[in-house]
From TrEMBL:
Subcellular localization(s) per the UniProt record: Cytoplasm
Active site: 470
Organism: Rhinopithecus roxellana (Golden snub-nosed monkey)
Cofactor note (record): Binds 1 zinc ion per subunit.
One MF annotation (Gene Ontology) recorded for this entry: dipeptidyl-peptidase activity
Binding annotation for Zn(2+): 469, 474, 527
Keywords, in A-Z order: Acetylation, Aminopeptidase, Cytoplasm, Hydrolase, Metal-binding, Metalloprotease, Protease, Zinc
Essential cofactor(s): Zn(2+)
Enzyme class of the recorded protein, top EC level: hydrolase
Record's protein name: Dipeptidyl peptidase 3
Length: 756
């Protein structure tokens, strides 16, 4: 589970040009761009560690390209087009040509920002919020630049062909294309364009019946002449349908009949991309520091070759056992935030170096974890039988490939491993350092006298929150399970539900997981539970002592942590779509729910007041009464957290949905009038920063670190130099893979019939 920062992505966007609705779908020219600093961390690596990190980074960057195919039908073509343009002319050279074609400096900068956004998000939809973004310049002008570019002179047919394929879709904001979603709600390439939520549910039930994970799958539906649907479940793997040595997967690759519908399980999705991932993992294996790392990589190779999530689980088991490595990494189909159904994983890979000083604080938190778990507001029977002491390190990221970079991670996401083998927590220190930089004049919705305190303590309070959220939030709580032999992991006679006073009535059956059972709300509900644990436990003096805070400083850290959460709850409204009544970002929905819980606590703990800003436009102020955090806030959070955990432990989907969706509902009911407040939030929002990452390059047997300036042009250069050996081949692969499946999304304006 990845943890983006609460509230770092916004500030006063009042200067944004154009009508309010449009600014949702563009990245502004003055968007913040920061470089990830890992020079010192890299310098401290030995030559062997550098080679290990280099090949793992290559594997991650190659695999990250699969995200283009997991996002939108046009994303692979847009990537290929941009890559061709900037390989032939760097951003400065292309600028001369663009200005000569009649573009203004602003229009050319808008194009650079768009290109940097596509690279950063691995597609043309924001990784945080799932909203489409389009170039902020006239389409005709961009067409002139592209068709008159050096790339077009060298390869006229290819460049024109790419533009004809993706130009319209690059700019289109017709309603269904504005957001990622399923059926009429939006666009996704995890499912063919004619799939509905009903198809997704049926497919999940089919997968559960065959004990297959959805993590590395996509679903394609074709309707025959009689109107009968046929489903293809396609697994990601290097191997396709060719006969191979018998593996655990080959017996699964066949036709099935399930509830009257034919299902075919196939494999070979993203095959040529995963082939490159596997080649680099083989090279990394030579430089592994120990047998755990070697066995872990062997299992990842097996997983990506065969399409086996079981092999990835085995690799994750070795990964958990590899305690305290110098070079830390994880790779695969991991987070399910962007699947509209909530069970398919997006490809990501990261490579990072341990920051020893900060890690020492986290290790002290781990040492206190068993005692702190007892402070959580649910009975001991609802906690894991044994706390499996995890690794908790602060890392400086060298490479994070995928659609976005989180601030902290708690993985693996496999429930069975988490309950019995354990997990690892990481806080990404150099990502947090970039995210902290908050300018006073860009701090929205706070009282003037809160701003200086907020700027001073936001960084330290977020370190505490990430630590608690990952370790004791995601790391806590037990799922009640009945295994395939009928045995229970809890005592049915003695365990009592504290909410009802009765024995346990529901649980998880064999093959059911948290994600498969709670599907569309699973990610956000779990983030809400972890965020709530962070707020609840940061009130504990021992926690703040571990991080070095006592007395007045400790009180300020608590205040700013709670203030940051309620502010984030208001900012979250940007990620709610009123037309579809749905949330587009799991963490932000979670923060809004917490805001609602604290508002409901009453007694003036939290107030939101509409105001008029100094620019004469609507504004708002969030206030938190720090004298009531313990007396009013803590008991409210305690009741809420207990309900969240009990419903999760017992697999009570109906109760969980009623509770969570009740708090997550956005209405214009007084006193808050959230729909009206949403307009104010949109008026004053700031886009999330783009982050420029370095490259590693092998020269003889020496690994060099290549760094780039913090600008849209610098970010583009980092991608232009990312694949020096095989850039054109990769673009060819991406467009061929996209073209092979293009028929599944033909006629993007035709939403499927039936329930969306």
């Amino acid at each position: 589970m990845g943890e983006p920062e609460a509230g770092s992505e916004f500030a006063n966007g009042a200067a944004a040009a154009g009508p309010m609705a449009d600014t949702q779908y563009i990245l502004p020219n003055d968007i913040g761009v920061s470089s990830l600093d890992c020079r010192e961390a890299f310098r401290l690596l030995s030559p062997t560690e550098r080679l290990y990190a280099h090949h793992l980074s290559r594997a991650a960057w190659y695999g990250g390209l699969a995200v283009l195919l997991q996002t939108s039908p046009e994303a692979p073509y847009i990537y290929a087009l941009l890559s061709r343009l900037f390989r032939a002319q760097d951003p400065d050279q292309l600028r001369q040509h663009a200005l000569a074609e009649g573009l203004t400096e602003e229009e050319y900068q808008a194009f650079l920002v768009y290109a940097a956004g596509v690279y950063s998000n691995m597609g043309n939809y924001k990784s945080f919020g799932d909203t489409k973004f389009v170039p902020n310049l006239p389409k005709e002008k961009l067409e002139q630049v592209i068709l008159g570019s050096e790339a077009a002179q060298q390869h006229p047919e290819e460049v024109r062909g790419l533009w004809q394929t993706c130009g319209e879709l690059m700019f289109s904001l017709e309603p269904r294309l504005r957001h990622l979603g399923l059926g009429k709600e939006g666009i996704t390439t995890y499912f063919s364009g004619n799939c509905t939520m009903e198809d997704a549910k049926l497919a999940q039930d089919f997968l559960d019946s065959q004990n297959l994970s959805a993590y590395n799958t996509r679903l394609f539906k074709e309707v025959d002449g009689e109107g009968k649907p046929h489903y293809e479940v396609r697994l990601a793997s290097v191997l396709g349908s060719e006969p191979s040595l018998d593996s655990e997967m080959t017996s699964k690759l066949k036709s099935y009949e399930f509830r009257g519908s034919p299902f075919q399980v196939t494999r070979g999705d993203y095959a040529p991309i995963l082939q490159k991932v596997v080649e680099q993992l083989e090279k990394a294996k030579v430089y592994a520091a120990n047998s755990h790392q070697g066995q872990m990589l062997a299992q990842y190779i097996e997983s990506f070759t065969q399409g086996s999530i079981e092999a990835h689980k085995r690799g994750s088991r070795f990964w958990i056992q590899d305690k305290g490595p110098i070079v830390e990494s994880y790779i695969g189909f991991i987070e399910s935030y962007r699947d509209p159904f909530g069970s398919r994983g997006e490809f990501e890979g990261f490579v990072a170096v341990v920051n020893k000083a900060m890690s020492a604080k986290f290790e002290r938190l781990v040492a206190s974890a068993e005692q702190l778990l007892k402070e959580l507001p649910w009975p001991p029977a609802f906690e894991k039988d044994k706390f499996l002491t995890p690794d908790f390190t602060s890392l400086d990221v060298l490479t994070f490939a995928g659609s976005g970079i989180p601030a902290g991670i708690n993985i693996p996401n496999y429930d069975d491993l988490r309950q019995t083998e354990g997990f690892k927590n990481v806080s990404l220190g150099n990502v947090l350092a970039v995210a902290y930089a908050t300018q006073r004049e860009k701090l929205t919705f706070l009282e003037e006298d809160d701003k200086d305190l907020y700027i001073l303590w936001k960084g330290p309070s977020f370190d505490v929150q990430v630590g608690l959220h990952e370790l004791l939030g995601h790391g806590s709580g037990k799922l009640f399970v009945q295994d395939e032999k009928g045995a229970f992991n809890f005592d049915q006679e003695t365990v009592i539900n504290p909410e009802t006073g009765e024995q346990i009535q529901s649980w998880y059956r064999s093959g059911e997981t948290w994600d498969s059972k709670f599907s569309t709300i699973a990610s956000s509900y779990e983030e809400c539970r972890a965020e709530s644990v962070g707020l609840y436990l940061c009130l504990h003096p021992e926690v703040l002592e571990i991080f070095g805070f006592e007395g007045a400083d400790a009180e300020d850290v608590i205040y700013v942590n709670w203030l940051n959460m309620v502010r984030a709850g208001l900012l979250a409204l940007e990620f709610y779509t009123p037309e579809a009544s749905n949330w587009r970002q799991a963490h932000m929905q979670a923060r809004f729910v917490i805001l609602r819980v604290l508002l409901e606590a009453g007694e003036g703990l939290v107030t939101i007041t509409p105001t008029t800003g100094s620019d004469g436009r609507p504004d708002a102020r969030v206030r938190l009464d720090r004298s009531k955090i313990r007396s009013v806030g803590k008991p409210a959070l305690e009741r809420f957290l207990r309900r969240l955990q009990v419903l999760k432990s017992t697999g009570d989907v109906a109760g969980g949905r009623a509770l969570y969706e009740g708090y997550a509902a956005v209405t214009d009911a007084p006193p808050e009038c959230f729909l009206t407040l949403r307009d104010t939030v949109l008026l004053r929002k700031e886009s999330r920063k783009l982050i420029v990452q370095p490259n590693t390059r092998l020269e003889d047997s020496d690994v060099q670190l290549l760094e780039y300036e913090a600008s849209a042009a610098g970010l583009i250069r980092s991608f232009s130099e990312r694949f020096p050996e095989d850039g054109p081949e990769l673009e060819e692969i991406l467009t061929q893979l996209a073209t092979a499946d293009a028929r599944f999304w033909k006629g993007p304006s035709e939403a499927p019939s039936g329930q969306a």
